[in-house]
Every structure is written in C-alpha cells, then in structure tokens.
Amino acid sequence: GIEVVKDYAFYNNGNLQEVVMINLRHIGSNAFDACTGLSSITLEKVEVLEFRALADTGLISVNLPAIKQCGGQALSDNRRLTKVKLPSHRFRPGYAMMTNCYRLSEVINSEVMEEIQPDTFRQCRNLHHMNLRARSIAPSAFNGCANLQTVRLYNNIVYVSQTALQRLNMDVPSNRKLPVAEFRERIQRERKTLYQKHIENIKKGRYL
After folding, report:
1. Which helix (H) or strand (E) holds 30?
2. Residue 105 contacts by C-beta under 8 Å, 6 or more apart in sequence?
3. Which of 1, 26, 132, 176 lies in the 20 to 30 Å Cα band around 92?
4. Is 159 helix (H, G, I), strand (E, B) or coil?
C-alpha cells in the first residue's frame, strides 16, 4: 500500500472528501493543503507531517498516535477542527502547528509536546484549558486564545488572561521560548500587575 504522499499531491483539491491509505506513514508539504472538503483520512500509522501537510481541510477530528515529526503549520487553518489527539510518546511539534483552528476545544495528550513553539495555538479561540509538560513555551503560542483560562504546567495551575499574555508578548520576541518556570513566574507577575492597577482604578473612582 501507499506509504508516502508527496508534496502538493492533492493541493487545493476541492472534490476530495475521504482518503483511505492504511499504510500511510509520511505526508509531504502541502499534500492536502486547501482540500476543504476532506472530512476523513486514515492517520493511524503516520509518523511525519511536513509543512502544511493537513492545513485548511474539512477535518473535524484528528488522531495522530504514531506521529514523530511535525512541520510548521501542519494542522493550521482547519476551521472545523474541534479535537486533536496526540500520541502517548514525547514529540516536538512544529511552529504554528494548530494556528487559526478557531473551533478547537480539546487537545488530548498535550503533555507529550516537548516544546511549545511560537504561534502553536494562535487564534484557537475555543480553548479554555491546557495541560503541558514542555521544557519551554513561546508566549506567542497563545496569541488570540481569548477564552484560555488556565494552563496546567506539570502539577501547577497557572491562571492566564489574554491581556496578561499580550503584555508578556510585548517584552518577549515572538520567536523566543521561555523555560517553563520563567513563563509561569512572568505570567503570574503580569496578572498581579493588572490586578493591582484594577484596584487602584477602583480606589480612584475611575469605574464610577
């Protein structure tokens, strides 16, 4: 059976709805990019997703139990996508892996991501909670995650807000990743600063 789908193999194929390749292991760059009608594909054995391999499709759910290597924007712009299941083993995702997946609300096994790259979850507006055990996190990973409330880092719950993340992003270059401990400390510091300003404004009667 087919194990490799080459770069641009089905690019912008609006008629493609289902792909059944039970031995598929490698999906090339832009292979299914802009296949907006694609709603089903067998990914159980896929180990490699190249750049924008499955971007801008009609997929609602993605299960990647065997993934080992993931290129940039591999699952980006999937506007119908609600759930992604990652493998049980550790792996390093590419940058902006799930950016602009507006309806994404669940990332199963998110703890396996070794690093959280820039723009990983950018504009994933339906995410409320994340569990992470990464070594480092790029603050820009959560840009536009307007409803994100908590990030669990190992055994510590960190309360976040979009305003605090935006303030942190102003101080950290977009391509820089922070060690987990520093990310936790700085986001908490930003939230404390915002809270103190809020109290000061109340005392000054600015909300009256």
Report:
1. none
2. 82, 83, 126, 127, 128
3. 1
4. strand
